[in-house]
Amino acid sequence: MSAYRSRLMAVAGHDLRQPLQVVSMVLDRVQLQVTDPALRGRVELAQKSIDTLSEGLDSLAKASRLDDDLGEPRRERFPVREMFQAVLETWSPQAEEKGLDLRVVGCSMLVESDRGMLTSIVSNLVGNAIKYTDKGAVLLGCRRRGNKLAIEVVDTGIGMTPAWLDHAFEPFRQLDRTKDGLGLGLTIVRRTADLLGHAVRVDSVLGKGSRFAVEVPLAAVSPASLEREGVAGMV
After folding, report:
1. What is the pLDDT of residue 1?
2. Integer Cα distance of 106 and 10 in angstroms
3. To which H or E segment does residue 68 belong?
4. Angle at CA 201, nearest 5°, toward 196 and 202?
């Protein structure tokens, strides 16, 4: 039953996306030709419904992978700033659409981890912060802690009670039922972090916001290699 459920969700999450994309493209073209305000409003409503359905399918696709084997991490040394830039490019449009200030604090450190898996963790944390923040800002930055680097995502969102913190990483937990999605982002974060051996911590105050941090080993490098990486002299 578990395998059947996962397969069903995978089909819904992947195979149905193509017809949705076709419908969305047609609606975009129709909207350009519609001049009647009332009809234009209906087209916009249809487009928003398609977007909501698409987000739901994305959540189903994520849910179908919860029981999958993520594989062995491919650890490498890489600069955090490259990952930050990729996450910024992914989430800037959503933050701008909500009127949020998505800030990225420059980080010159090099870490040792699986680049793809770590990017997925940070991207999920930023996306979750944007989702539960209606005004203010979302901050992505880093802080050195001994031989590790704490990559932090701080928001001014709705926050969580201590009781909610105990269940924050459980699957299908929705802090705000009015939000889209299935509540799987933090579950994926925890599972991926456990596979990498990275600790994930969260502090939150209801009504004021949350701070998530994932601790990643710093790469052991020499001054010469730092210069080759182009980070010498940076703070």
Report:
1. 62
2. 37
3. none
4. 140
**CA 106/CA 218 separation, integer angstroms:** 16
pLDDT 10s digits, 116-151: 889 989 998 999 899 899 999 999 999 999 999 999
List b or e across 142-164, with b for residues whose CB sees 16 or more CB atoms inside 10 angstroms.
beeeeebbbbbbbbbbbbbeeee
Lowest mean pLDDT of 35-39, 148-152, 194-198, 219-223, name the range. Answer: 219-223
Name which of 213, 209, 203, 205 is nearest 122 in CA terms.
213
pTM for this prediction: 0.67
Q: Which amino acid is at 217?
A: P
**DSSP class per residue in 96-161:** HHTT-EEEE-----EEEEEHHHHHHHHHHHHHHHHHT-SSSEEEEEEEEETTEEEEEEEE-S----
Contact call for residues 173 and 167 (beta carbons, < 8 A): yes
Buried b (16+ CB within 10 A) or exposed e, 104-126: beebbbbbbbbbebbbbbbbbbb
Q: Which two tokens stand for residue 31?
A: 């909207």
